[in-house]
Amino acid sequence: MTSPETNDEEAFPREYLERNPAEAARRLEQLAPAESAAILSSLDPDLRAPVLDALSPAAVDDLADHLEPEAFAAALERLDPVHGATLVRAMAEQHRQPILDRLAPSVRQDLDLLLRCEPGTAGAMMDPRVMYLQRNLKVGDALARLRQRHFQRRVTRGLRLMLIVDGAGRLDGMIPLQDLALAELDDLLEDYMQPVSTFVAMDAPREEIVKQMDEHRVSSLPVVDAQQRLIGTVRYEELMAAAKEDAVGDIQALFGVSRSEQALSPAWFAIRKRLPWLQINLATGFLASAVVGLFEDTIAKYTALAVLLPLVAGQSGNTGAQALAVAIRGLALHEISITHWPKLLGKELLVGIANGVVVALTVALCVYLWSHSVGLTLVIALAMLLSMVIACASGAAVPLLLTRFGQDPAQSSSILLTTITDVAGFFTFLGIAGLFIGLL
């Protein structure tokens, strides 16, 4: 285990840090925050920046108690503003201001703009270091400015289109760089200017950005303010990284795990994030148990019901999970919206009926061979069919309803669906058994 007294250059050689900042970050997260801070403080800011950028949000917050604000600020100045803003957001409020106060004015201005925007919006995802030219500039002068800025690779990296603004800074058009390179030097930029195919407002949500990029096949998306002034661009790689995080976060959320928890997050962070959902699951479990308790006398008389009860509830849960997975995928990929609920619900009802009939016939045959009871066979076949239809419909309806009321369908759907399918499975099976009790 590395300690502050250990030679940090031996533990984290420069070549290792340059090539494997993410792996170095994982190693640092296994140390005490004070040890990690001591190692990071000893590094050059150019090496410290990518390692800090690769740390989990929980680790960044812990480090803020031990790493000097100057060391944090020097690293932030070497990161893209979007990544820098992500680091600052991961810190507790009391740690942010001392670090921001030590930033260079230009970096501070960019970060302040990003931090004012809601996470997940175009304003929070954009790179404010956008390069643009005015329409009345000559082609030769424009090319000269491009060459002057070429050394600033953070600004010109991946540049394919040159954005054009008017005298007030409003987005006016664009010119492909290949057109600019082949143009006459004395011509004006406006002679080659084309309309901008698409742009977004700074408060546009991530879904709108994905939609615009997909429809118009652009590698970057201009972002404008309320006065249509150009304030930044969302780059394709930034959007894809955010989409990847969202996809992973959805998987975690489906199982009641916080989106911000990583594999090596501290144990206390994981306990704090997971325990509330476990308690909610426990409460819903008591609700399902209460339904079973309503039919306690029926189960006591016919113990075979207790044997078959998990079969109905389990099949109902699996059926609902299938429908839920398809519905959440459709919402995530914008294949459906809440306006599609009649079509989606109708499809899932049809699927539930068809699958329910086949499964009910299969289980009826098995139960009859086991029990030789026509009544028990009829009860479980009807319960299986009805519970699977309810599960299919619920799996489609729950995420749509949560979306309609502004909730995250990935975070809450599985818990609600589990409650519905358990209650539906128990109630239909035991309720139908009560109705046909004379046949058991």
Structural description of this entry:
The protein is mainly alpha-helical. It has three domains: 8-116, MgtE N-terminal fold (Alpha Horseshoe); 132-243, CBS-domain, CATH 3.10.580.10; 267-439, SLC41 divalent cation transporters, integral membrane domain (Tetracycline Repressor, domain 2), CATH 1.10.357.20. It is built from 22 helices and six strands. The protein has helices at residues 8-11, 14-19, 21-29, 33-42, 45-54, 57-63, 69-76, 81-89, 93-100, 105-116, 122-125, 139-149, 153-156, 177-182, 206-216, 236-254, 267-294, 296-301, 304-332, 341-371, 374-404, 409-435; strands at 132-134, 161-165, 171-176, 200-201, 220-224, 230-235. It has a three-stranded mixed β-sheet with strand order 1-2-3. A three-stranded mixed β-sheet has the order 4-5-6. α19 packs parallel to α21, α19 (304-332) packs antiparallel against α22 (409-435) and α20 runs antiparallel to α21 (374-404). The radius of gyration is 29 Å and the shape is elongated. The model is unreliable at 1-7 (pLDDT under 50).
